[in-house]
């Protein structure tokens, strides 16, 4: 079966020919635009169609026969890796993201390692790796 996402459970083996898909992530508008993150990984299969990754960065499951590698979670979404079957190679979950949104009047203008954008009267700092800011 597919792995659970941040917004929905994964699905068990869905038919005689397809493994279960990963659960969907959740949509956030903290950056000013809707973005879905946290999708679950798709289920693995022996010799049928692997499960698809959940919306929001989930990876596709692997297949054992013939061996095909599943997918990793999408970077900066926190999406889960696709399921691994026996000797099929494994995958990694997607890296996460830290997003800080504040009134521009509360922001000092000092940050390191993030990307700064604005939306209306707010400043948004997105960190896809290490970094810091002064509020």
What report would you give on this structure?
This protein has 135 residues and is mainly β. 0% of the residues lie in helices and 21% in strands. Strands 3-6-5 form a 3-stranded antiparallel beta sheet, with no helix packed on it. Strand 1 and strand 2 form a beta hairpin. The radius of gyration is 18 Å and the shape is elongated.
Annotation keywords:
mainly beta, three-stranded antiparallel β-sheet, single chain, 135 residues
Percent range of helical residues = under 10%
String of helices and strands: EEEEEEE
Strand tally is: 7
Oligomer: single chain
Strand count, sense and barrel status of the largest sheet are: 3 strands, antiparallel
Q: What is the radius of gyration?
A: 18 Å
Q: What layout of secondary structure does this protein have?
A:
Blueprint (H helix, E strand, L loop, with lengths): L25 E3 L6 E3 L60 E6 L6 E3 L2 E5 L2 E6 L4 E3 L1
Antiparallel strand pairs: 1-2, 3-6, 4-7, 5-6
Short précis:
By secondary structure, the chain is mainly beta. It has strands at residues 26-28, 35-37, 98-103, 110-112, 115-119, 122-127, 132-134.
